[in-house]
Predict the 3D structure of the following.
Amino acid sequence: MADTEALVNQLNECAEKQDFEGAFRLVRENRAELDKKIRATGIRDALKKTTRDRLLLSFLDGVGFGESPLDESLVKLEKLVGFQPGALVLSKAWGLGKVKRLDYFYKRVTVDFKTKKNHQLTYAAACDMLEVAPEGHILVLREADPAAFEQMLKERPGDFVKEVLKSYGDMTIVRLEDICVQNGFVKAVNWKKFWEEARKALHQDKLVEIPAKRTDPIRLKASVEDYGDGWLTAFSHETDPKLILAAVREYVSQGRFKTATDDAKSKIADRLEFAVTAARNVDDALYARLASLVLELGFARPAAADMRAYLWERKRYISAASSLPAREVGAMIAFLADSDEAKAKLYAAVPELCFTAVAEIVSRFGSESACRAALGGFMKDTQAPATLVTLIVGKIEQFGKFEYADVPIDGKNIKVLKSYELWPELPPVATILTHAIALGEGRRGGETLKMQNIVRRLFGDRAWLEKMFKLLKPADQVLFFERFQASIAWDPSTHHTIVVRMTHIVPALESHLVKTEKKKEYARVTSLRSYGLRKQEYLKLINEDMPANVKRIEFAKSYGDLSENAEYQYAKDEQRVLMQKQTVMQAELEAVKPGDFSDATTDEVMPGVTVVIESAEGRKTYTVLGEWDNDVDRGILASKTRLAQNMLGKKVGDQFELPGAEGEVKFASIVEILPLSEEIRDWMKLPPGVQI
């Protein structure tokens, strides 16, 4: 590196020649040495001597020499120099744009974006938000040759995805979808079809690595690996278990393992053994993947028995299954099921296993009597496993013999169910459907929530409902219908739609419809206290908050150019929020009336009573008041809360759903309905100093 004095002399020579480019290059190449010896403002002044171009001089004044680290100022300066009129630039917010002009007086860059023409940015904003678009960027390719771009998109989706990866870097499938949809490459409704076609092509491309999990990125390699001595040497020193697994998988997929030398196989076995040890007690899913691969390749170490013992210990295989990609769960199940005793342990664990693992067990061992007996036992329990219930109702043909016949209807051959026979170990279809109804009720969590969502979608599918009714005898159809009607924990609108759909499928069920009384509506009322406080808040909004906001807007206008005035934009955003709040509050104050609940009775739960309830956790007391009344410490509930809504209209002895944390549905019963206490009536009074 040249010494400082020599660098200064070279800068002076550039000044004499008016060679800004040479001086800028000199500073960039020697910035570390210059930063130690010369102040940033001194470097700026030296560069200013090398040009009389007003635009370049404005750049030098606008990138913060002396206010920011030298490296940062130089990067900004390099960007601004690249923002010449006609240059293509990229913005994360607006995509591709073209620089229209630069204004040295106001220090602004004007850019034309597709959705934002003549957009002005300060130098600082331009440096933060824009990048000079690389020549091969996907957005530049579209701008340069739209016809070729569209042809690649339609005819070579795999190549198109590679161009996106080159432009934006490795990314997950979800991120890829976001980029393609947001930039208008692919419509959201067409994404699934596009990705299926692209995936087929990419799987054949040795430069692309498609991940097993959607949360892992798609990777674009710089070159095809030749798997020669260099690769083997580098692989022998790899210490990351995930990379070892990926490398071996790729090696095997390329057909290299079959023809590998004994030395190569020995090194692969050594690294896999290392990886298995490293994953132990750290990542059970990774351990399972490595163990399955060791067995697949036929390596004697680590011993298969030891790896199985580790996965059986503390039921590690259960947590591993929930984290594994779906396609690899089956490999782990096959690895573990090396004996009838091991299979029995898997069957016993069905209630704890994830849906994918349960499906794999049924697929692999459903023909074995021991498996059927275990699954049948679970389905005969009062609370059958959610995963097993979901699997059976969703793919019931896997659990029996179903015969179909082609019947000509309206000139077409339609497959009609002729006969069926479920596994004898399973309960009747009516019982299975009862489990499904129960699963669809209430709020669930974790894996059970996923199963609930699947079951609810099935009940909303007319074709599925028709199939289920065909499997039931007339008497069982009625039982199924009445059981679903009696379910109180489904979403009311969804529940009503499904009930009506059932009567359309089997018209005879209309005679079994239960007429429900319309839920009683109560006047919109709240206590004097809550009404007064809400009105006080409203008056503060219109008399203090909104006028103060108007002043801030007027003050912000004094800063000049409104398009780049952050203070003005913040104040206007605040104004919109305040106006929306004022509209809502005004409407509420007109709709809700203040009252003292003097007309409330204790015949049933209504606004203005105290309720004693009993649940599995014991007895609790709540007071139901008006829409805006709430005091947790006193047990006061607003009438619009979910708990209050579930209790309204109920009488002593009635049951209702008790909202709680995610999990099983809980119920409580009404024990007593009491008039308001003096303490509650005192709380309801208008606070001192508050007026209506």
About this structure: Residues 138-220 form one domain. The chain has a mean pLDDT of 89. The two ends are 80 Å apart (CA to CA). Residues 528-557 form the longest helix (30 residues).
